[in-house]
Design brief:
alpha/beta; 9-stranded mixed β-sheet
Length: 230
C-alpha cells in the first residue's frame, strides 16, 4: 500500500532516536573523518573525481545539484561516515576536475561509474542520494541499471525523468519542502514510481540541498539516516 506524505513538524521521536543511535554529533569524531581523493572512468571515456569517506559494507553515493559540487556534501558525508557508512561524493562531469566523455552531459553515466567503482572495491550494498539535477541523474541511472544493484534511492526534489515507473531500487524515498516550486513535479514522479516508496515533505520553501542551510537541516539528515538504516 502506498505510504502517504508527511509534514515533519515537529520531528517524530523515532527519527530523533535514530540521530542519537548513529551519533551524528561530536566534533572530535567529525574531525577524524577525512576524505580520500579518488577518480574513476565512465563508460563513455570520461573521468570522475570524488571524495571517499569512511568504511563499511554499505556505501552511499552523493550526487550534487547544479549550483553545488562534491564539497557541498561534506557535513552530510561526515555524519554518514560516522554512522559506519562508506560515502562517495562525486563531482559531475564539467565540475571540478571531472571531465565528460563522448556522450556530453550524460550525467547518469557518472552515477553508474560511481556505483561500479564501489562494487569493484568490494562493496556489496550501494545506496544513492541525488539532489535536484543530481536527483534526475540518479533517477536515470536507476532506470538504466539492473534490479537489485541500488539498495536505497533517495531523491531530493529531483529533476523529472520521463519514466519513473521503471526505477530499480529496493526502496525509493522522495524528499522535498511544501513551498518548493517543484513540489507538484516531485509528487507526480512519486505517484508513478514503483513500491516500496515514501514521500517526505518538510515545511518551508528551500529547494533540494538548500534545505541543509535551513532550520530543517537536522531533520533532513535524520530522514536520510533513517532511510539508510531500514
Amino acid at each position: 500500500m502506498q505510504k502517504l506524505a508527511r509534514d515533519l513538524r515537529p520531528l517524530p521521536v523515532a527519527l530523533i532516536c535514530v540521530a542519537v543511535t548513529f551519533g551524528v554529533g561530536g566534533d572530535a569524531r567529525a574531525a577524524a573523518v577525512q576524505p580520500a581523493d579518488v577518480a574513476f572512468p565512465t563508460s563513455d571515456g570520461g573521468e570522475i573525481h570524488a571524495h571517499l569517506y569512511g568504511e563499511g559494507d554499505h556505501a552511499v553515493v552523493l550526487a550534487h545539484g547544479a549550483v553545488f559540487d562534491k564539497e557541498s556534501w561534506t557535513p552530510l558525508a561526515t555524519k554518514l561516515a560516522e554512522a559506519d557508512l562508506k560515502v562517495l561524493a562525486i563531482d559531475f562531469r564539467g565540475y571540478g576536475r571531472s571531465r565528460p566523455g563522448s556522450q556530453g552531459e550524460a550525467r547518469y553515466l557518472d552515477v553508474l561509474a560511481a556505483i561500479s567503482y564501489l562494487k569493484e572495491q568490494g562493496t556489496s550494498r550501494v545506496s544513492v542520494v541525488g539532489a535536484s539535477m543530481g536527483g534526475g541523474a540518479v533517477a536515470r541511472a536507476a532506470v538504466a541499471i539492473g534490479p537489485g544493484e541500488i539498495d536505497r534511492l533517495i531523491l531530493l526534489a529531483p529533476v523529472a525523468i520521463p519514466n519513473p515507473e521503471k526505477l530499480h531500487a529496493n526502496r525509493i524515498v522522495y524528499l522535498t519542502a511544501e513551498g518548493d516550486p517543484s513540489l507538484s513535479r516531485t509528487r507526480q514522479q512519486y505517484e508513478r514510481a514503483p513500491e516500496p516508496k515514501t514521500l517526505e515533505v518538510l515545511s518551508g520553501d528551500a529547494h533540494a540541498q538548500h534545505l541543509f542551510k535551513t532550520d530543517h537541516s537536522q531533520a533532513l539528515v535524520d530522514l536520510i539516516l533513517a532511510a539508510l538504516a531500514d
